[in-house]
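OP here, attaching both records as promised.
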Amino acid sequence: MEFTKKVYSTVIVLMLLCLSPLTAQAQTNTVKGTVTSSDGPVIGATVKVKGSSTGVVTDMDGNYTIKVKPGDVLSFTYLGMTTKEVKVGKQATINVTLSEDDKLLEEVVVVGYGKMKRSDLTGSVVSVNSKAIEKSVPTSVDQVLQGRAAGVQIQANTGTPGGSSTIRIRGTNSLNATSQPIFVIDGVIIDSSGSDDGNSNPLASINPSDIVSMDVLKDASATAIYGSRASNGVIMITTKRGQSGDASITYDGYVGWQTMPGKLDVMNLQQYAQHYKDITDAGIKPASSTWIRGDLMGNGTDWQDELYRKALMTSHNISIAGGNKDVTYALSAGYLDQDGIAIGSMFRRLSLRGNIDANIKKWLKGGINFSLADSKQKTSSTYNIIMTALTSQPSVAVRNPNGGYDGPDDQWMPENPVALAEITDNHNKKTNFRINTYLEAQLFKGLTFKTELSADYNFNNYYYYQPDYKFGVKTNDIRSGR
């Protein structure tokens, strides 16, 4: 009897020990409150448990309700206001008053021909700074804005390296046969309307590492400066400039590889043989002795594996900047080399940019900006080789025993996609030179006169070359295109 009591006591103690941590973990409290500012309730403020994904948003009256545990820290955030944190104890109500973020309101934003404090803005402006560029590996400036600017929709037109993107600011509107916005780089207007064709991207000549900030003018006030060209929006780009002080040399670069995240599921050779047998049994196609024993065949050619590769991408940038109280300067050079994931595609860019600002008189200052970019883009998308690879037969080899490219054994099947990618030379070579000079005179306190002169030169050379071939088998060389 005594032994039985000891057993029962031990079991009860063990059960209590097992339940105690579960009970402690399950202890949660409900906290309510109101988030306000000097103007009243804050609608849409984020209330989040710091260090976790638990969070809520305040309602139309600024009220919120959230479940917390003792010791949690609640973080209250709202755009344009300072973040406030409160440690949770035993209180059931936590009311918070947020104050305006003075640093954000004092931030300088480029608008048209001048600059304004964000607190003085009446139009809609979205800004992206250089920190966003440092956290990504963009090829062109349109990729910098993607997913980082509210109200700006950016969609890649093609997967080709150096390819263009479709940019829409607050939907599709057009007064000039295009919905693309205009870009203004240090006062030079760049019309990006030509980037709608998919491959050619005028913005790819700009090195993202040279950018300090990008300001998107989204409303109609931009047309007061740039006219109807700005009806689709304006994207202002400010590049790096020299600062007074000792010369500083900066290098940044990276080396990486690009791979396909996954492949589409298509039939291998055994499955294709069974499929062919099924359609011959149904009388759709005549019977063939080739496909009788598909179970004895291997997997055949995986055209996606043959076409895709692990593509190298590398970027190197070096800059020097400095000056004194009268003259400042900045000079940068960059090199980008990006191979496409599909064989036969690539993008190379060499860029050089510099600027000088000088105080000529106490009341007069001037400067000059210049940029030079040379790029080469190669693509095989003329034949849509991705779709060609997906529809090619697994029974066809990449090369035949003679060393030439193998071709399909069915007249309705597409030609060898690897052959199309390797023997076709389809590239764009571009050289771009931009220059901008200005004079700024302070006539008297509160009134400044500024004049600018800018030029943009583009030299494009499109080259297309393809040998003559039959079913992907090279026969002789014939030049075509220009």
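Record two, same layout:
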Amino acid sequence: MNDEHYMKLALAEAQKAFDKGEVPIGAIIVMQDKIIAKGYNQVELMNDSTAHAEIIALTTAYNYLGSKYLPEATLYVTIEPCLMCSGALYWSKIGRIVFGAPDEKNSYRRIAGSNNPFHPKTAIVGGVLEEECSELMKDFFKKLR
């Protein structure tokens, strides 16, 4: 399996959020070529500003593994993580983060700048299926207007 394959699965999670009127961000966590967690934004559903796709996927992965660290895992998320999610990812010690589209308004880079908010051993890859991830977000916000 490759990054594009798993990002397509994260996009399927984002579509679930879109269909429920949530900002369409989806995430999956993979370890040893096995999906151990999935999540999509549920902020409106749960009336909880912390119910981001990444947080939901992290909690699911911790429960699945019975561990609070994920150094051997990869997170696939359709949009670049926000600062809150970056903090949670830092503490998870996740091995790798792969994101689809950048988020100039709400990403960690907006506040952290060039400072890396992730664990020093975390590898970061961006731009995987960027166009598809970006289009889903654009379609969502066009629908709202």
